[in-house]
Amino acid sequence: MSVAHGVKTLGVVGAGQMGLGIAYVAALKAQIPSVMLCDASAGQLSKGVAFFETLLKKDVAKGKVSQSDADAARARLVTVEKLEDFAGSKGIADMVIEAATENLAVKQKIFGTLASTLPLETILATNTSSISVSKIAASAVGAGVKPGSEEAWKSPARALGIHFFNPVPVMPLVELIPAIQTAPEVVDRSRAFAQACGKEVTTSKDVPGFVSNRLLMPFINEAVMALEKGIASRDDIDKTLRLGMNHPMGPLTLADFIGLDTCLSIMETLYRETADSKYRPAVLLGRMVDAGWFGKKSGKGFYDYPAK
Ligand SMILES: NC(=O)c1ccc[n+]([C@@H]2O[C@H](COP(=O)([O-])OP(=O)(O)OC[C@H]3O[C@@H](n4cnc5c(N)ncnc54)[C@H](O)[C@@H]3O)[C@@H](O)[C@H]2O)c1
Protein backbone atom coordinates (compact mmCIF):
# COMPACT_ATOMS: atom_id res chain seq x y z
CA MET A 1 0.00 0.00 0.00
CA SER A 2 1.45 3.38 -0.94
CA VAL A 3 1.80 5.93 1.84
CA ALA A 4 0.60 9.51 1.33
CA HIS A 5 3.20 12.13 2.17
CA GLY A 6 0.47 14.56 3.24
CA VAL A 7 2.57 17.65 2.55
CA LYS A 8 0.46 20.61 1.45
CA THR A 9 2.77 23.29 2.79
CA LEU A 10 6.53 22.85 2.68
CA GLY A 11 9.10 25.06 4.37
CA VAL A 12 12.63 25.22 2.96
CA VAL A 13 15.42 26.77 5.06
CA GLY A 14 18.28 28.15 2.97
CA ALA A 15 18.00 29.52 -0.55
CA GLY A 16 21.49 28.40 -1.59
CA GLN A 17 22.12 25.89 -4.33
CA MET A 18 20.49 22.97 -2.47
CA GLY A 19 17.52 24.73 -0.85
CA LEU A 20 16.62 26.38 -4.10
CA GLY A 21 16.79 23.08 -5.97
CA ILE A 22 14.61 21.38 -3.35
CA ALA A 23 12.03 24.19 -3.57
CA TYR A 24 12.12 23.81 -7.36
CA VAL A 25 11.36 20.07 -7.51
CA ALA A 26 8.79 20.39 -4.71
CA ALA A 27 6.89 23.13 -6.56
CA LEU A 28 7.28 21.74 -10.08
CA LYS A 29 7.36 17.94 -9.76
CA ALA A 30 5.58 17.23 -6.46
CA GLN A 31 3.22 20.20 -7.03
CA ILE A 32 3.17 21.02 -3.31
CA PRO A 33 0.54 23.81 -3.17
CA SER A 34 2.70 26.15 -1.07
CA VAL A 35 6.51 26.09 -0.89
CA MET A 36 7.82 28.64 1.60
CA LEU A 37 11.45 29.61 1.15
CA CYS A 38 13.49 31.33 3.87
CA ASP A 39 17.12 32.46 4.08
CA ALA A 40 19.06 34.35 6.75
CA SER A 41 20.32 36.62 3.97
CA ALA A 42 17.71 38.75 2.16
CA GLY A 43 20.10 39.11 -0.78
CA GLN A 44 20.47 35.33 -1.09
CA LEU A 45 16.68 34.93 -0.91
CA SER A 46 16.06 37.26 -3.85
CA LYS A 47 18.97 35.69 -5.74
CA GLY A 48 17.35 32.30 -5.09
CA VAL A 49 13.96 33.41 -6.42
CA ALA A 50 15.60 34.89 -9.54
CA PHE A 51 17.42 31.59 -10.08
CA PHE A 52 14.15 29.65 -9.62
CA GLU A 53 12.63 31.77 -12.41
CA THR A 54 15.69 31.28 -14.64
CA LEU A 55 15.48 27.50 -14.16
CA LEU A 56 11.80 27.54 -15.14
CA LYS A 57 12.53 29.63 -18.24
CA LYS A 58 15.31 27.27 -19.30
CA ASP A 59 13.09 24.20 -18.83
CA VAL A 60 10.31 25.84 -20.86
CA ALA A 61 12.78 26.81 -23.63
CA LYS A 62 14.07 23.21 -23.76
CA GLY A 63 10.48 21.95 -24.06
CA LYS A 64 10.78 20.00 -20.78
CA VAL A 65 8.03 22.01 -19.04
CA SER A 66 4.94 23.71 -20.47
CA GLN A 67 4.45 27.44 -19.87
CA SER A 68 1.32 26.76 -17.81
CA ASP A 69 3.14 24.24 -15.56
CA ALA A 70 5.96 26.75 -15.12
CA ASP A 71 3.50 29.51 -14.18
CA ALA A 72 1.79 27.18 -11.70
CA ALA A 73 5.16 26.23 -10.13
CA ARG A 74 6.15 29.89 -9.79
CA ALA A 75 2.82 30.68 -8.13
CA ARG A 76 3.48 27.94 -5.52
CA LEU A 77 6.72 29.60 -4.36
CA VAL A 78 6.36 31.99 -1.42
CA THR A 79 9.20 33.76 0.39
CA VAL A 80 9.21 34.32 4.13
CA GLU A 81 11.51 36.44 6.27
CA LYS A 82 12.06 34.21 9.27
CA LEU A 83 11.64 30.62 10.45
CA GLU A 84 8.69 31.57 12.67
CA ASP A 85 6.76 32.42 9.47
CA PHE A 86 6.54 28.68 8.66
CA ALA A 87 3.70 28.76 11.19
CA GLY A 88 2.22 32.13 10.35
CA SER A 89 -0.32 33.91 8.19
CA LYS A 90 1.02 32.24 5.01
CA GLY A 91 0.20 28.75 6.34
CA ILE A 92 1.54 26.08 8.65
CA ALA A 93 4.23 23.82 7.24
CA ASP A 94 3.58 20.04 7.27
CA MET A 95 7.24 19.46 6.52
CA VAL A 96 10.34 21.66 6.71
CA ILE A 97 13.57 20.78 4.92
CA GLU A 98 16.63 22.54 6.28
CA ALA A 99 19.35 23.21 3.68
CA ALA A 100 21.39 25.84 5.50
CA THR A 101 25.17 25.99 5.77
CA GLU A 102 26.88 22.72 6.81
CA ASN A 103 27.49 23.69 10.42
CA LEU A 104 26.15 21.85 13.47
CA ALA A 105 25.52 24.94 15.62
CA VAL A 106 23.59 26.62 12.78
CA LYS A 107 21.43 23.53 12.26
CA GLN A 108 20.83 22.98 15.99
CA LYS A 109 19.60 26.55 16.37
CA ILE A 110 17.28 26.17 13.36
CA PHE A 111 15.81 22.88 14.65
CA GLY A 112 15.28 24.37 18.12
CA THR A 113 13.35 27.28 16.60
CA LEU A 114 11.31 25.03 14.30
CA ALA A 115 10.39 22.71 17.17
CA SER A 116 9.33 25.71 19.26
CA THR A 117 6.99 27.07 16.60
CA LEU A 118 5.59 24.14 14.61
CA PRO A 119 3.12 21.43 15.68
CA LEU A 120 4.49 18.00 16.64
CA GLU A 121 3.04 16.55 13.41
CA THR A 122 5.36 18.65 11.23
CA ILE A 123 8.24 16.58 9.82
CA LEU A 124 11.59 18.30 10.35
CA ALA A 125 14.19 17.19 7.80
CA THR A 126 17.81 18.10 7.31
CA ASN A 127 19.69 17.99 4.02
CA THR A 128 23.01 17.69 5.85
CA SER A 129 25.76 15.90 3.95
CA SER A 130 27.54 14.45 6.94
CA ILE A 131 26.52 15.75 10.34
CA SER A 132 24.97 13.26 12.78
CA VAL A 133 21.23 13.35 12.09
CA SER A 134 20.62 12.00 15.59
CA LYS A 135 22.47 15.02 17.02
CA ILE A 136 20.43 17.44 14.90
CA ALA A 137 17.20 15.57 15.83
CA ALA A 138 18.09 15.92 19.52
CA SER A 139 17.91 19.69 19.11
CA ALA A 140 14.36 19.46 17.74
CA VAL A 141 12.82 20.19 21.13
CA GLY A 142 10.88 23.37 21.77
CA ALA A 143 12.03 26.03 24.21
CA GLY A 144 10.52 25.44 27.64
CA VAL A 145 9.81 21.73 27.05
CA LYS A 146 10.76 19.83 30.22
CA PRO A 147 13.57 17.27 29.79
CA GLY A 148 12.13 13.78 30.23
CA SER A 149 8.57 14.91 29.41
CA GLU A 150 6.55 13.11 26.74
CA GLU A 151 7.07 15.99 24.29
CA ALA A 152 10.84 15.97 24.84
CA TRP A 153 10.87 12.33 23.66
CA LYS A 154 8.27 12.71 20.94
CA SER A 155 9.56 15.82 19.22
CA PRO A 156 12.89 14.42 17.88
CA ALA A 157 10.95 11.43 16.47
CA ARG A 158 9.67 13.67 13.62
CA ALA A 159 13.21 14.51 12.49
CA LEU A 160 15.31 12.74 9.84
CA GLY A 161 17.78 13.31 7.03
CA ILE A 162 16.44 13.79 3.49
CA HIS A 163 19.63 14.08 1.46
CA PHE A 164 19.15 15.49 -2.05
CA PHE A 165 22.05 15.64 -4.53
CA ASN A 166 23.46 18.53 -6.51
CA PRO A 167 22.05 19.83 -8.84
CA VAL A 168 18.73 18.80 -7.31
CA PRO A 169 16.56 19.18 -10.46
CA VAL A 170 18.92 16.85 -12.36
CA MET A 171 20.16 14.22 -9.92
CA PRO A 172 17.66 11.36 -9.57
CA LEU A 173 18.56 10.20 -6.05
CA VAL A 174 17.48 11.01 -2.52
CA GLU A 175 19.17 9.27 0.43
CA LEU A 176 16.97 8.95 3.54
CA ILE A 177 18.74 8.88 6.89
CA PRO A 178 16.58 8.00 9.87
CA ALA A 179 18.09 9.23 13.14
CA ILE A 180 18.00 6.71 15.97
CA GLN A 181 15.02 8.72 17.31
CA THR A 182 13.02 8.80 14.02
CA ALA A 183 9.53 7.24 13.96
CA PRO A 184 9.02 4.69 11.09
CA GLU A 185 5.93 6.59 9.90
CA VAL A 186 8.07 9.71 9.35
CA VAL A 187 10.45 7.70 7.14
CA ASP A 188 7.53 6.31 5.09
CA ARG A 189 6.00 9.75 4.51
CA SER A 190 9.38 11.23 3.61
CA ARG A 191 9.99 8.44 1.09
CA ALA A 192 6.61 9.21 -0.50
CA PHE A 193 7.51 12.91 -0.61
CA ALA A 194 10.89 12.27 -2.28
CA GLN A 195 9.21 9.99 -4.82
CA ALA A 196 6.64 12.70 -5.56
CA CYS A 197 9.61 15.00 -6.30
CA GLY A 198 10.53 12.47 -9.01
CA LYS A 199 13.38 10.82 -7.09
CA GLU A 200 14.60 7.27 -6.49
CA VAL A 201 15.18 6.63 -2.81
CA THR A 202 17.87 4.76 -0.87
CA THR A 203 18.27 4.50 2.89
CA SER A 204 21.45 4.79 4.95
CA LYS A 205 22.16 4.37 8.62
CA ASP A 206 23.10 7.55 10.46
CA VAL A 207 26.89 7.11 10.22
CA PRO A 208 29.40 9.88 9.34
CA GLY A 209 28.96 10.75 5.65
CA PHE A 210 26.12 8.20 5.27
CA VAL A 211 26.72 5.92 2.26
CA SER A 212 27.16 8.66 -0.36
CA ASN A 213 29.78 10.93 1.20
CA ARG A 214 31.58 8.16 3.03
CA LEU A 215 32.54 6.96 -0.46
CA LEU A 216 32.68 10.23 -2.44
CA MET A 217 34.54 12.63 -0.13
CA PRO A 218 37.67 10.52 0.53
CA PHE A 219 37.89 10.15 -3.26
CA ILE A 220 37.73 13.94 -3.81
CA ASN A 221 40.14 14.53 -0.90
CA GLU A 222 42.62 12.06 -2.43
CA ALA A 223 42.45 13.99 -5.72
CA VAL A 224 43.24 17.23 -3.84
CA MET A 225 46.18 15.48 -2.13
CA ALA A 226 47.44 14.25 -5.52
CA LEU A 227 47.37 17.86 -6.77
CA GLU A 228 49.00 19.13 -3.57
CA LYS A 229 51.85 16.60 -3.91
CA GLY A 230 52.37 17.49 -7.57
CA ILE A 231 51.56 13.96 -8.71
CA ALA A 232 49.68 15.37 -11.70
CA SER A 233 48.22 18.65 -12.91
CA ARG A 234 44.64 19.69 -12.16
CA ASP A 235 43.61 18.99 -15.74
CA ASP A 236 45.31 15.59 -15.88
CA ILE A 237 43.73 14.45 -12.58
CA ASP A 238 40.27 15.33 -13.88
CA LYS A 239 40.98 13.94 -17.37
CA THR A 240 42.18 10.62 -15.94
CA LEU A 241 38.89 10.04 -14.16
CA ARG A 242 36.76 11.34 -17.01
CA LEU A 243 38.36 9.42 -19.84
CA GLY A 244 39.88 6.50 -17.97
CA MET A 245 36.99 5.72 -15.64
CA ASN A 246 34.13 7.21 -17.61
CA HIS A 247 33.18 9.65 -14.83
CA PRO A 248 31.01 12.49 -16.20
CA MET A 249 33.33 15.02 -14.55
CA GLY A 250 36.67 14.87 -12.75
CA PRO A 251 36.89 15.00 -8.93
CA LEU A 252 38.31 18.55 -8.80
CA THR A 253 35.53 19.89 -11.03
CA LEU A 254 33.00 18.00 -8.91
CA ALA A 255 34.49 19.51 -5.73
CA ASP A 256 34.07 23.00 -7.23
CA PHE A 257 30.43 22.22 -8.00
CA ILE A 258 29.70 20.85 -4.52
CA GLY A 259 31.47 23.78 -2.83
CA LEU A 260 34.94 23.47 -1.27
CA ASP A 261 33.64 24.71 2.09
CA THR A 262 31.07 21.92 2.07
CA CYS A 263 33.70 19.32 1.04
CA LEU A 264 36.03 20.46 3.84
CA SER A 265 33.30 20.42 6.40
CA ILE A 266 32.30 16.85 5.43
CA MET A 267 35.92 15.64 5.62
CA GLU A 268 36.28 17.28 9.04
CA THR A 269 33.16 15.45 10.24
CA LEU A 270 34.41 12.10 8.91
CA TYR A 271 37.83 12.67 10.52
CA ARG A 272 36.48 13.87 13.86
CA GLU A 273 33.74 11.28 14.25
CA THR A 274 35.77 8.23 13.22
CA ALA A 275 39.20 9.38 14.55
CA ASP A 276 40.58 7.51 11.53
CA SER A 277 43.60 9.21 9.90
CA LYS A 278 42.49 8.05 6.45
CA TYR A 279 39.91 10.86 6.55
CA ARG A 280 42.42 13.69 7.23
CA PRO A 281 41.34 16.69 5.09
CA ALA A 282 43.95 17.80 2.52
CA VAL A 283 45.81 20.92 3.71
CA LEU A 284 45.32 22.51 0.28
CA LEU A 285 41.53 22.12 0.63
CA GLY A 286 41.67 23.98 3.97
CA ARG A 287 43.84 26.75 2.57
CA MET A 288 41.54 27.30 -0.41
CA VAL A 289 38.57 27.63 1.93
CA ASP A 290 40.62 30.02 4.10
CA ALA A 291 41.13 32.14 0.98
CA GLY A 292 37.38 32.22 0.28
CA TRP A 293 37.79 30.01 -2.81
CA PHE A 294 34.63 27.97 -2.40
CA GLY A 295 34.36 26.78 -6.01
CA LYS A 296 31.69 27.63 -8.55
CA LYS A 297 29.46 29.54 -6.10
CA SER A 298 32.23 32.02 -5.20
CA GLY A 299 33.69 32.36 -8.71
CA LYS A 300 36.95 30.55 -7.91
CA GLY A 301 38.00 27.09 -6.83
CA PHE A 302 40.23 24.66 -8.68
CA TYR A 303 38.88 26.42 -11.79
CA ASP A 304 37.77 30.03 -12.39
CA TYR A 305 34.10 30.91 -12.92
CA PRO A 306 33.91 34.51 -14.18
CA ALA A 307 30.63 36.27 -13.33
CA LYS A 308 28.23 36.22 -16.31
N1 LIG B 1 26.46 21.46 -2.29
C1 LIG B 1 26.19 20.17 -2.43
O1 LIG B 1 26.60 19.51 -3.39
C2 LIG B 1 25.34 19.48 -1.39
C3 LIG B 1 24.78 18.23 -1.69
C4 LIG B 1 23.96 17.61 -0.74
C5 LIG B 1 23.73 18.23 0.48
N2 LIG B 1 24.31 19.44 0.74
C6 LIG B 1 24.03 20.07 2.05
O2 LIG B 1 22.99 21.00 1.88
C7 LIG B 1 23.16 22.09 2.80
C8 LIG B 1 23.23 23.40 2.03
O3 LIG B 1 24.30 23.34 1.11
P1 LIG B 1 24.43 24.39 -0.11
O4 LIG B 1 25.44 23.81 -1.02
O5 LIG B 1 23.07 24.74 -0.62
O6 LIG B 1 25.05 25.65 0.66
P2 LIG B 1 24.99 27.19 0.22
O7 LIG B 1 26.16 27.81 0.89
O8 LIG B 1 24.83 27.32 -1.26
O9 LIG B 1 23.60 27.70 0.89
C9 LIG B 1 23.38 27.75 2.27
C10 LIG B 1 22.36 28.86 2.52
O10 LIG B 1 21.93 28.78 3.89
C11 LIG B 1 21.71 30.11 4.33
N3 LIG B 1 21.72 30.10 5.79
C12 LIG B 1 22.77 29.98 6.63
N4 LIG B 1 22.33 30.01 7.91
C13 LIG B 1 20.98 30.15 7.87
C14 LIG B 1 19.97 30.25 8.88
N5 LIG B 1 20.25 30.21 10.17
N6 LIG B 1 18.68 30.39 8.46
C15 LIG B 1 18.38 30.44 7.14
N7 LIG B 1 19.30 30.36 6.16
C16 LIG B 1 20.58 30.21 6.52
C17 LIG B 1 22.86 30.91 3.69
O11 LIG B 1 22.56 32.29 3.65
C18 LIG B 1 22.92 30.27 2.30
O12 LIG B 1 22.10 30.94 1.36
C19 LIG B 1 24.42 21.76 3.61
O13 LIG B 1 24.06 21.09 4.77
C20 LIG B 1 25.18 20.84 2.67
O14 LIG B 1 26.09 19.99 3.33
C21 LIG B 1 25.09 20.09 -0.17
From TrEMBL:
Q: Does the keyword Zinc apply?
A: no
Q: Which GO terms describe its biological process?
A: fatty acid metabolic process
Keyword annotations? NAD, Oxidoreductase
Q: Which SUPFAM superfamilies match?
A: 6-phosphogluconate dehydrogenase C-terminal domain-like, NAD(P)-binding Rossmann-fold domains
InterPro entries referenced in this protein's UniProt entry, alphabetically: 3-OHacyl-CoA_DH (IPR022694), 3-OHacyl-CoA_DH_NAD-bd (IPR006176), 3HC_DH_C (IPR006108), 6-PGluconate_DH-like_C_sf (IPR008927), 6PGD_dom2 (IPR013328), NAD(P)-bd_dom_sf (IPR036291)
Q: Where is NAD(+) annotated to bind?
A: G14, A15, G16, Q17, M18, G19, D39, E102, K107, S129, N166, K297
Ranges of residues in domain 3-hydroxyacyl-CoA dehydrogenase C-terminal: 209-305
Select a single GO molecular function from the record's annotations and give it: NAD+ binding
Q: Which residues form the 3-hydroxyacyl-CoA dehydrogenase NAD binding domain?
A: 10-206
Pfam assignment, any one:
3HCDH_N
Q: What residues correspond to the site Important for catalytic activity? A: H163
Does Cytoplasm count among this protein's keywords? no
PANTHER family annotated for this entry? Answer: 3-HYDROXYACYL-COA DEHYDROGENASE FAMILY PROTEIN, 3-HYDROXYBUTYRYL-COA DEHYDROGENASE
Family indicated by similarity? Belongs to the 3-hydroxyacyl-CoA dehydrogenase family.
* Protein name, as recorded: 3-hydroxybutyryl-CoA dehydrogenase
